[in-house]
Amino acid sequence: MTRIAVYPGSFDPVTLGHEDIVRRSLALVDRVVVAVAANPSKEPLFSVDERVTLLSGVFADDEQIEVTSFDGLLADFARVRGAGVVIRGLRAVSDFEYESQMALMNRELYPELETVFLVPALHLTYLSSSLVREIARLNGDVGACVSPSVAAALDKKFGR
Ligand code: PNS
User: Fold this and answer.
1) Residue 42 annotated in active site
2) pLDDT per 10-residue tile (average), the chain, 160 residues
3) What's the burial of 83, exposed, middle or buried (CB within 10 Å: 0-12/13-18/19+)?
4) Is the pTM of the predicted complex or chain greater than 0.85?
5) Ligand 1 pocket check for 9: Cβ under 6 Å
6) Which one is catalytic: 10, 69, 129, 147?
7) How far apart (Å, rounded) are the C-alpha atoms in residues 39 and 48?
8) Is 148 left (phi over 0), alpha (psi -120 to 50) or beta?
9) Which of 7, 19, 34, 106 is the most buried (most CB within 10 A)?
């Protein structure tokens, strides 16, 4: 039986931390569906389509990784896709409160769904998409934070 995991998130934009978590998750499952959440309440820098395109470029070399988007509940998306596992990255204790709440609520909505938390490589622990956006907006170097294609997309977005 193929074990499928969903790795959901905003990915605005995908960072090296996200990439690290996806690759680590392949030690646990056969396929990972990286799923960009279309969240109308957030004002993103990149559109959902742009984020899917960036993620697809980053993971183009790996057939075990699929990139897509979803709207509605994650629990419903996971059920439809036959995924029994949700992957989430945990960087610091401060992430835990929100993440555990979400994991318990997703289990309430879909009892067969297990959330697995993975810790990124130490040197990527400080990364977040919001910091990357801010650094790029202020003309800083994001080369240590994102793949070159994502850095180029940030440059373009900020008119450079
Ligand atoms: O990268 P983020 O912004 O921390 O990801 C949050 C995300 C997209 C995983 C979460 O907001 C989500 O699952 N959204 C889909 C809607 C949903 O299922 N909400 C209830 C969660 S218990």
Assistant:
1) yes
2) 96 98 98 94 93 98 97 97 97 93 98 97 96 98 98 96
3) buried
4) yes
5) yes
6) 129
7) 9
8) alpha
9) 34
